[in-house]
Design a protein that fits this description.
The chain starts with 5 loop residues before the first helix and ends in an 11-residue tail after the last helix. The chain is about 65% helix and about 0% strand. It has 14 helices and no strands. With about 290 residues, it is mainly alpha-helical. The mean pLDDT is about 95.
Length: about 290
C-alpha cells in the first residue's frame, strides 16, 4: 500500500499516457499528511479535489463523520487537504459549488441525505486551525471566517488586511462601534426590514448629517479598493470615519420614538455596517 499511486505513475508512463495523466495517478492522493506537498499539475489538482470531496460527502451522508478522536476514514485530513489546495493554489472555486458537484455523484441513491451544510462547517473549522497554525491570531481568523466565505482563495490577503487595520490607532474605536451596530441590527431585524434607504431630509442632528456625508464620500473609495482586491486599502479607508462614528453614538438617539426618524437612522447604520464588513467582521477585533 505504500506504493499507492506511485506504481500507477510508472504504468501510465509505460503505456504512453500524457505526463500530466501519469503524475495525476500519484498526485490525486496528495496531500497525504499534514505538511505534505500539493499536486503540481492542474490534472492532479482536479482529481485530488474530486477524490477528497466525494469521500467527504459520501462518508458523511451515511453517518460516519468523525466523532471525538475517532476519524477512521481520515475526513479531517481530506477536508484540510481541500482547504490547503483552495488557499495555497489560489483556486477561485466556491465551496458550495464544489460540494454541490460532489453531492450530485450520489443523485442515483433515493436515500441519499445531502450533508453539504455540515461538511461546509467542518471544512471551515479545518481552515481555522490551519490559519492559526500559520501564526494568525484567533480574533483575526474569526473576523474573516465568521462571515462564512464561500471562496477562500484570498483568505490570507483578507487576514493580512485585518492585521494592518488592527495596527491603526482608529481600529479599536471602529471595531467597538461595529460591534455595537451589529448588536443593534441583530435585535431589530423586523424594524430594519422596514427601514429602506436613507432620506437626507429626515436627518436632524448635526452628528448624523456629518456621518451620512462621510459615508457618501468614503463609500466610492471603499468600493473601488475592494473591487481591485486592495483589502488593506479598503479597511484603512474606513479609518476616516472614526470621529464621525464616535460623534454619532455620543449625540444621536438611534431608537427615537418617531418611527420614520428611527428607521432612517437604522438605514444609515445598515449602510455603514455593510461597508465596514466587506473584508471582514471587524467587530471580532473588539476587546
Amino acid at each position: 500500500p505504500e506504493l499507492q499511486g506511485i506504481m500507477g505513475t510508472y504504468y501510465a508512463r509505460n503505456d504512453g499516457e500524457h505526463e500530466d495523466v501519469a503524475l495525476a495517478a500519484s498526485e490525486h492522493y496528495q496531500p497525504r499528511f499534514s505538511g505534505d506537498a500539493l499536486p503540481t499539475t492542474n490534472t492532479g489538482l482536479a482529481v485530488a479535489l474530486a477524490d477528497k470531496l466525494e469521500t467527504l460527502v459520501g462518508i458523511w451522508s451515511i453517518g460516519l463523520q468523525p466523532t471525538g478522536e475517532k476519524d477512521p476514514f481520515a475526513l479531517r485530513r481530506h477536508a484540510l487537504g481541500v482547504m490547503r489546495m483552495l488557499v495555497e493554489k489560489r483556486l477561485a472555486l466556491g465551496i458550495s459549488d464544489l460540494l454541490k458537484d460532489a453531492a450530485g455523484v450520489f443523485d442515483y441513491m433515493p436515500t441519499f441525505k445531502d450533508p453539504t451544510a455540515e461538511v461546509t462547517v467542518f471544512m471551515l473549522d479545518r481552515l481555522r486551525g490551519l490559519l492559526r497554525d500559520r501564526g494568525f491570531a484567533p480574533n483575526e481568523v474569526e473576523a474573516v471566517l465568521a462571515q462564512n466565505p464561500d471562496r477562500v482563495d484570498d483568505v490570507v490577503q483578507h487576514l493580512e488586511a485585518v492585521q494592518a487595520f488592527a495596527a491603526l490607532p482608529e481600529s479599536a474605536s471602529l471595531a467597538a462601534a461595529n460591534k455595537r451596530i451589529t448588536n443593534i441590527l441583530k435585535k431589530i431585524e423586523e424594524a430594519l426590514a422596514q427601514a429602506g434607504s436613507v432620506d437626507p431630509a429626515l436627518l436632524q442632528d448635526a452628528a448624523e448629517k456629518a456621518l451620512y456625508a462621510s459615508v457618501q464620500r468614503v463609500q466610492p473609495e471603499v468600493d473601488a479598493a475592494f473591487e481591485r482586491g486592495d483589502f488593506t486599502g479598503t479597511l484603512k479607508t474606513l479609518a476616516q470615519l472614526r470621529d464621525d462614528v464616535d460623534a454619532f453614538f455620543n449625540d444621536v438617539m438611534v431608537m427615537a420614538d418617531d418611527v420614520a426618524l428611527r428607521n432612517n437612522r437604522l438605514a444609515l447604520l445598515s449602510i455603514l455596517h455593510r461597508m465596514m464588513n466587506r473584508v471582514a467582521d471587524i467587530s471580532k477585533l473588539a476587546a
